């Protein structure tokens, strides 16, 4: 049967209301792409693949959680959803709310949201409100609003978001025949690492497959879970993980330790280098999405991780198209040449 999206595919494994109608855009079922060149860069001798979540309908993994959160809100009769967002949650909430015929309100930190995300939220018809504060401020505000008014909160504090996001772990187990040995992913508000661990544990109980070790990676300027305390003014080029007080921080730390993994920090330079490396294998992701690989490189290069013979998966959470400005700012600029054959030959045959 044709693929039907994550709610219909995994309904028996999801803790959702009986009879809940699926608001879906056939999210999930994303490719697991082998990246042998990157494995070689890391010493070779192991199986390395990218779970490319940027290929979800709105360009990030957020759609997995949003299909469930918005379906559940609609099931309860909610007419409006609200979220705080560094960008991708906003675009996803806006799209699914539009599909459900609901109103979406998104609160974002002014000037800190990548162009493709902001454009998406507007295109899908959300009411976009910028505040002169951080993501963490925005989250406190939307929690207060949803407690006071009949407006459904669709941040990953909403447990239905995690129910949907577990599906990525199920897909990995099914594609690989078991969980990978290591899973590396970025950590921001920490809903995703929490959901993966829930999903792997659930699959493990059901099918007795192995459990992976999880490497969570924060940006060095926004690394509360590495430092062990909140960060008042988080700063990083990886705007999707520019979060100083992760809502699911405790669960994330538990996921890392229960899995015999860890949460580490990578610098913006290391994250950008990983973004380039992925692009050199044909996979263009936004900076935050490259954090998992940057952490893996760091651990292997420092000798703290031996991947020989292992199955390793890097979760690339969002598409590069979301954040085009970072490329024009950080990468080589296009050459400008006169429209003349000889001039073109000069630059093309240059070396
Ligand atoms: C939301 C997001 C993250 C962080 O996920 P959390 O669940 O908040 O930890 C990472 N990368 C991208 C592209 C995101 O949109």
TrEMBL record:
Its EC number is 4.2.3.1. The keyword Cytoplasm does not apply. One of its GO terms (biological process) is threonine biosynthetic process. It catalyses: O-phospho-L-homoserine + H2O = L-threonine + phosphate. GO terms for molecular function: L-serine ammonia-lyase activity; pyridoxal phosphate binding; threonine deaminase activity; threonine synthase activity. Pyridoxal 5'-phosphate binds at residues 88, 188-192, 317. It is an enzyme of class 4 (lyase). This is Threonine synthase.
């Amino acid at each position: 049967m044709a693929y039907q999206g994550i709610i219909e595919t995994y309904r028996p494994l999801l803790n959702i209301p009986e009879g809940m109608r699926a608001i879906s855009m056939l999210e999930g079922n994303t490719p697991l792409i082998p990246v042998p060149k990157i494995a070689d860069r890391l010493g070779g001798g192991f199986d390395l693949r990218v779970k490319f979540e940027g290929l979800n309908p709105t360009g990030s993994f957020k759609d997995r959680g949003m299909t469930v959160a918005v379906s559940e809100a609609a099931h309860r009769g909610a007419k409006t959803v609200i979220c705080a967002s560094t960008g991708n949650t906003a675009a996803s909430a806006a799209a699914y709310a539009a599909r459900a015929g609901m109103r979406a309100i998104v609160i974002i930190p002014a000037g800190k949201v990548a162009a493709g995300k902001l454009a998406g939220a507007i295109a899908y018809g959300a009411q976009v409100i910028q505040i002169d504060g951080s993501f963490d401020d925005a989250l406190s505000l939307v929690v207060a609003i949803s407690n006071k008014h009949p407006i459904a909160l669709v941040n990953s504090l909403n447990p239905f978001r995690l129910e949907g996001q577990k599906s990525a772990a199920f897909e990995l187990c099914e594609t690989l025949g078991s969980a990978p040995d290591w899973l590396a992913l970025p950590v921001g508000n920490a809903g995703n690492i929490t959901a993966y661990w829930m999903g792997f544990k659930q699959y493990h109980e059901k099918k007795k497959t192995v459990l992976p070790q999880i490497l969570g990676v924060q940006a060095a300027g926004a690394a509360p879970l590495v430092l062990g305390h909140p960060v008042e003014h988080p700063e990083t080029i990886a705007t999707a993980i520019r979060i100083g007080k992760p809502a699911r921080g405790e669960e994330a730390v538990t996921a890392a330790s229960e899995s015999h993994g860890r949460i580490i920090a990578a610098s913006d330079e290391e994250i950008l280098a990983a973004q380039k490396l992925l692009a050199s294998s044909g996979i263009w992701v936004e900076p935050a999405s490259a954090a998992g690989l940057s952490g893996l490189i760091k651990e292997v290069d420092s000798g703290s991780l031996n991947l020989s013979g292992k199955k390793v998966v890097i979760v690339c959470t969002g598409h590069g198209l979301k954040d085009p400005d970072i490329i024009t700012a950080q990468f080589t600029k296009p050459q400008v040449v006169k429209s003349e054959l000889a001039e073109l030959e000069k630059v093309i045959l240059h070396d």
